[in-house]
Amino acid sequence: MMRLLAFMFPSKWKPICAGCVVLAWICVTCLFSPSPAAVAATADFDVEIEYSEYLSKHQGAERPAIEILVPLTGYAATDMSIATLENFEGRPGQSLWTDEYGFVEWEVDVPAEGLYNIGIVYFPVEGNNSDIQRQIEINGEIPFFGARHLSFPRVWVDAGKPRVDNRGNQIRAPLAEEPIWQEAMLRDHMGYYMDPYLFYFRAGVNRIRLISQKEPMVLGEIKLFQAERPPSYDELLASYAQAGYQPAKDFFLKIQAEDTKYKSEQTLYPVHDKGDPSLEPYHPVQIRLNSIGGYSWQRPGQWVSWEFEVPEDGLYIIALKSKQNLRRGTYSNRRLLIDGKVPFAEADAVRFRYTTMYDMKVLGVEERGEPYLFYLTAGKHELKLEVVLGDLADIVRRTEESLYEINRMYRSILAVTSAAPDPLRDYRLEKRVPKVIENLKVQSAVIAGLSKELVEYTGQRGDHIAVLDQLAWQLNNMADRPDTIPRRLSEYRDNIGALGTWILQTCEQPLQLDYIIVASPGSKMPRTTPSIWELALHEIKAYFGSYVFDYEQVGNVYDPSDPEYFERKPLTVWMSSGRDQAQQLKMMIEDTFTPSTGIPVNLELVNMGVLLPATLAGRGPDVALGVPTSDPMNLALRGAVVDLTRFTDFHDVKERFMESSFVPFTFRDSVYALPEQQQFPVLFYRKDILQELGLEVPQTWDDVIKIIPELQKRYMEFGLPVSDERLRRSFNAYDIGMATSGAGSLAVHRGVLTFLIFLYQRGGELYLPDGVASALDSEESVAAFRLWTNLYELYKLPLQYDAANRFRIGEMPILIDNYGLYNFLSVFAPEIKGRWDFTLVPGTVRADGTIDRTVPASCELGGAGCIILSHAEDKEAAWEFLKWWTSTETQVRYGRELESLLGPAARYSTANVEALTSLPWTVDELRKLNEQWQYVKGVPEVPGGYMTGRHLDNAFRKVVYQKKEARKTLLDYVRVIDEELELKRKEFGLETDIESVLKASEEGTLKTGR
């Protein structure tokens, strides 16, 4: 540095220049050092070792062959509601009822130190219909990361036989819980370890604490023991010969796979496979529930069981007509259990290869071409198939561990180069992060080794191998040429995302079954593949059937002119969700609504973009479900929807919801819709990354402003909702007939939600009373707008990003988004499970020291409502339907069955307050949601309001992109907004004089007159 100064400046300037350099160095050092305010005591994030490390730590420990019972009712400590039960549900002796929140702890005397399995006998008492979740601590510590997430499934059965609608389609029976005593060993819920967990206990007194996370359950027994390992098939075969077992004679039993006894989840229901005429039962056009599985039966831990009966003691064979056509290039695996036990080691993971058509899989030793023999006694037996990863478990687990390390290396490189590095700059990564460069080589070898193992396992190379090979090559090449890393960082990030998706897809083990055969050895198996003539005939029948079968109608269809069905004219109800949701709703209508009211319903699937044109043309429905937030007001101004306050019991129904959910549907003293769904923002954060950085979860916006520089030093970002031009274009394309009618409002301007957070927390409003004019010229609005633009102009927050991917990779460890993101992350980012959480949105400190965390209701999904159209002939019947649909019982059932149908990613964001508490959230999650919900403020819809979001977004872009002054820009656009509001009010015959409207509002004389 001093040589450079000598070259650049005369000697008389050297002292001054040197002083400037020192001062600059001090400033930079201060700037890039964590500030005490931002790096305070870190939130309490515990980090545990992985189970593989835990086993290595106790590698030499004994496995004592003893069984130790935990004294259930003699617990040492608890903070939960707990009760001792006698002879509960047929189990003799005492049991312990435990609540869904809190802990219970026991002292256990262990005579010999070593590793033990833990078995639990439990009974799933009534809860929210989700799996029971617990966490275990031993001697005050969580032994390893997986011990945080222990899952205990419920048991489900079909509640009756499938019904048939009046068009000949089979409708699946609803699933009902069948609570029974179950025995489970504590094991990895992700399926990464085939064997149950082992826990180390010292000799003497140990403390075992079981912490409730979700759902209550009754404990019947907890024991420490050594799990029995099944013999190999050859060993079992030798024991058969020694015992003199003989093959059964002349027996052949076909079990239809859809006729199950028990199942572990509500998603495991019979399905319709219409492409194969060999299925049983079959119809070319009508729906037949002829198989089970597919997409819904693919996650490790899911199981289905069937009951069957054999006439005599003897040896039998088992075959399955199965199809695995979803995971090309690999196997699906199932654990086979007979009467609750794995009969031999090979049955712990039975492979099903990829096939495009159904295949007859005779379980057996493929190398020798001989079937497995199963010894069964005369009488009833239970056959269970459970999804497992088999030999893939170890590969997937090590891949996920490598992914986490590769992700960490990416963040280390990011801290040096930024997400958009200068391609002409030499960052000297081999000098600045030498361990990362070394680790690139290590992880390249790990991934390459995993690829080789996978090829040996599957016997082929394909797309599933290419992902690993590409990443292994890239890591190795970057380690050899560190100077190329900056310009390849984007590709590196994409490959990390691809590896995460690879893990998710590899864990999927789909399998579809038509039927199961239990037969005497030597029985001839039926043909499973249809002939070319059978396929041709099927296609011809299906083609002609499509001309007479209406696929838009769902379930029973009632002809209004046919008096055969009911005395009342059927209601026509439109909804715009998927067919699965529509079928579920139709089944509920036929189950409860129509029988209790006598009102028939025709349910139709439509695009809600045609609602306004159809209504104005007189061809609309009686009731529309799931309409966007802007539609009810848009239709009401044209006299096309019913004012719901006309019904005498409206105010009783209104008590079901938060007041904020009615705001977009209310004009003056009229309400034009009932809310169905309501979402709102929460703060998501990565616990592991915040711990790495020594940062606390921000509570106020001052905290956020302090944290942003700490993140940016490492080239990480804080995420706020942003307006995405692609989203805006997609909305315009979707809303056919709505673009010129005032639709959309704030829905396509997500960034405006950030502004509304700041505005509402300052006590500001979006509009003056009655929507007569904008209220955005207030000082609160200007301050909120300035903060909003400053965050992007001065703090350089990202203007466009993929929230889920950035959060998953770690580039954006803190972000604000609708709470529905929780569902997505829970399913599609399993590698960070337990390493992230959500909490309340940061707030603004009030004068009294409290924090105002007010947030706007989401305008995208969160205000979906249901309406009655004005031309409905039987408005009372339509109102009865709306009351039934938004009732707690209906919303809870729909939400639970929707999640059972489509999985946790489809968790329903009901607007019914009581119903939300009955959906499968944990107690802690529900507490945070309810607390944030209390702060939610509705966003009003007014005539001409579509200009508000548009011009707020325009004002934002002018300030951020064109560097215009914030106050003047906002006020300029406020005038444009006010002009449109006035224009629309004149169009609909509403008062435009602001003084008159304000006076009428104060006097309470504003009425709709409708």
Q: Could you outline the blueprint of secondary structure elements for this entry?
A:
Layout: H1 2-8, H2 14-31, H3 51-57, E1 68-69, E2 77-78, E3 82-86, E4 94-98, E5 102-110, E6 114-123, E7 132-138, E8 150-152, E9 156-158, E10 163-164, E11 170-171, E12 175-177, E13 182-185, E14 199-201, E15 204-214, E16 217-225, H4 233-243, E17 252-256, E18 262-263, E19 270-271, E20 291-294, E21 303-310, E22 314-323, E23 332-338, E24 350-352, E25 359-362, E26 364-365, E27 370-371, E28 374-376, E29 379-388, H5 392-417, H6 429-432, H7 434-458, H8 463-480, H9 489-507, E30 511-519, H10 532-545, E31 553-554, E32 571-575, H11 579-597, E33 601-605, H12 611-616, E34 623-627, H13 631-636, H14 650-654, E35 666-667, E36 670-671, E37 674-675, E38 681-686, H15 687-693, H16 701-713, E39 718-719, H17 725-734, H18 751-761, H19 779-793, H20 803-809, E40 814-818, H21 821-828, E41 836-839, E42 844-845, E43 851-852, E44 855-856, E45 865-868, H22 875-886, H23 888-902, H24 913-916, H25 923-933, E46 936-937, H26 946-962, H27 966-987, H28 994-1003
Parallel strand pairs: 32-33, 32-34, 39-40, 44-46
Antiparallel strand pairs: 1-16, 2-5, 3-4, 4-16, 5-15, 6-13, 6-14, 6-16, 7-8, 7-15, 9-12, 10-11, 17-30, 18-21, 19-20, 20-30, 21-29, 22-25, 22-28, 22-30, 23-24, 23-29, 26-27, 31-33, 34-45, 35-36, 37-45, 38-40, 38-41, 42-43
